[in-house]
Amino acid sequence: MLCAVAEEMELTDLEKLRAAIEAGDGSALLAAAGEIHYADLAHEYENYDDEERDFLLKTIGPELATDLIGELPWTLIEEALSHFKPAQLRIILGNLSDDDRVDIFQIVSQENQRRFFSLLGPHDEQLTRNLLKYDEDTAGGRMTTSIGRITADMTVKQAITVLRRDKDSAETLSRIFVVDEQGRLVGKVRLRDLAFHPWPTMIHDIMEDADERVLATTDQETAARILSKYDLIVLPVVDEFDHLLGVITYDDAMEILQEESTEDIEKLAAIGGEQSELSYLNTSVNSHFRRRVIWLVVLAFVSIFSGYVMFRFSEVLNQAFVLSLFLPMVVAAGGNSGGQAATMVIRAMSLGEVSAGMALRIAWKEIRTGLMLGATLGLAMGLFIYFLLPFIQSQSDITYARLAITVSGSLLLQVFSSTLLGALLPIGARAIRLDPAVVSSPSLASTVDVTGMLIYFTAAKFILTL
Amino acid sequence: MLCAVAEEMELTDLEKLRAAIEAGDGSALLAAAGEIHYADLAHEYENYDDEERDFLLKTIGPELATDLIGELPWTLIEEALSHFKPAQLRIILGNLSDDDRVDIFQIVSQENQRRFFSLLGPHDEQLTRNLLKYDEDTAGGRMTTSIGRITADMTVKQAITVLRRDKDSAETLSRIFVVDEQGRLVGKVRLRDLAFHPWPTMIHDIMEDADERVLATTDQETAARILSKYDLIVLPVVDEFDHLLGVITYDDAMEILQEESTEDIEKLAAIGGEQSELSYLNTSVNSHFRRRVIWLVVLAFVSIFSGYVMFRFSEVLNQAFVLSLFLPMVVAAGGNSGGQAATMVIRAMSLGEVSAGMALRIAWKEIRTGLMLGATLGLAMGLFIYFLLPFIQSQSDITYARLAITVSGSLLLQVFSSTLLGALLPIGARAIRLDPAVVSSPSLASTVDVTGMLIYFTAAKFILTL
Question: Model-level pTM?
């Protein structure tokens, strides 16, 4: 069962599943579903219609459905739960891990939330109410409370007894946390240290410091970056009195970082609104439309300023229409170089490499880079114009010197200023607590289009009068 | 020591470190370095000059330096190793985890590689030579071979004895793999299952299937996506005969996915070449320049085509120069909408959501989205022109109907065609095994700038003659 082979087999299992659903064959469906990982099953579920989903959910029953629901995009969960009767819902809600359960309570309607609470046991209800206090984008909102906890005055044997009791509910036992009698985090041990030390060993003799920890109110992205930076499997979450509340696990961190990367990428392309939890093809045309239209309309209106500059300088163009040959180039070079600089800086901010306080060092780096880029581009075009000269002079009586100075000079100025602007605008936005998303590559391009027009036409006007 | 406080303390520790280095105080340096996580130490190391690095490395000695070197960006590693004498190098190379060691052997000069091999013990040398066979971008190139291995015919007690022997070298014991007498992967157990089962239990009674596995030649990104999709802590790597070679761990996966996201982001902004391993500020101006200049020059030449179209249609502009008010808008709307569509599709390809075979479904989605976007933008501008009309008519004798149809019609056509092109070009590039990087947002914009000019001027020319 190599990977290639495994994938082939999965395809066949998925095909069996689809055939069973179409045939309405419950036992074939159960057999096929049993062979498929629930992450793949959730992916497949997206493609089914209402009736097929109902048949699938009811056939696999509440136990398997719990695993499936834990993997579904949140937009599909409430609907999926509506297929079940209260007795089955009670099983599903009880089986869910506490972090998945609280996510679901956060997204369902008020009415469903009340109904679901009434189906929970008293312990789960209390736990869920406590977790619901945290915003869903914080460490508290993402953590799981199912962890192994022991105290420092236990022996290894006592610790193993305690953990054995909890082993099925604990999400990970790779790290076991040591708390004091008030529940404050004092250290950690690894399961391997329990497994390989003699039973009478005291926990406080083998425990290590648990320095890395975050407050429950910490932003989830910050928590994920700490996990990633220090290669942690779990990161403890505490309250302001250091009480251990739960942990964020490595798989949550991976998910958070992927979401943030996708968000960065989309924002840079001027795609607005919330990321769809559905895959590209399963996202509706309406949703695609809504996320793109706002910026398109805004940017279209910004472009009128460029148009107005061009309109105002009509007499310059009329004087030597060959100037139009290089107008789009000067304009676009600003958007391209500015977009490169903005992308570099925005990514570096996301990765925690630069902050607003480093604006001067960033400016100094981009001033030099921008000058080198502008000079190279200006020089390349100056040379190119030399070869193009016979054609250009056949259309106009412009001299080489005038044209080359206009084009090369404005390219240098446009690339230099756009690079600097592209690097500094995101920093500035962050500094005044504005969403750096307004500095997407297209919005930057629309802005420097205006400066490009101004630079080019002003230069041309001045040089043509010489 | 809450996170906020911890960060503050870290700052102080870093400041102590800097002060110790400046004062040349070795014992203060050692004390400060002992308080700093080596991931932070590596980050700090980037900022030091040659002399400071030498002092730091020699003071902390080969043991601590091993941890530091494992976290350094690869461009700094060879230089860091040059500070040590052969006896110290022997310690460092021996202490490195096998995956870090092979990474280093991959990047150093031929001469250093020979020298480093001579410093390794026979077992480490053989292991490193074996691992060097795999390309660094594959699962084999990223895996570690330090894992817990047991056989199915052992008892839990025997297994614990075997693992106890290996516990310090094994990178993770969260998953322990079961192999047959030929070393073929047959299953896995969790350390918790060993810890909590009675000692006489047979391994084959508690082991689970290890279905998820990859070939050593699998691309590292594919391996990382499998880890992420199935929430695995480790993913076994096998050869074509199913022999267990090693594992990829969750922290490698996190790193690989972050690198790939950064690559996507940079490519979309037309930034070329290899990602710098150094942080943004520590990357040299020369390197920033080199990665951006190529595409800037290429795109500048592409823009000449736009200029040429504009030049060719000079008589249309001269007939009604108010048309220039809307020219940048029509042109930019294509780049913006095309860039949005391309970004969506490229990200979906990266996340494994769409493949070239889905081109028709993607086209159908984007045809509808593009029509809606184009119609909305066309309508908005048609209305806007109505309010702008007094000004426009004062400059020209153009009628509302003619102007509105020209602008709205070409916006519709330009947005629709650019959206479709933006979505299909990356798919097409992938299909013919071209690097989808050529479909960056700027290169797409430069292309649809030409079509935008053509559409707008052709429409204007036609409608003005009516």
Answer: 0.84
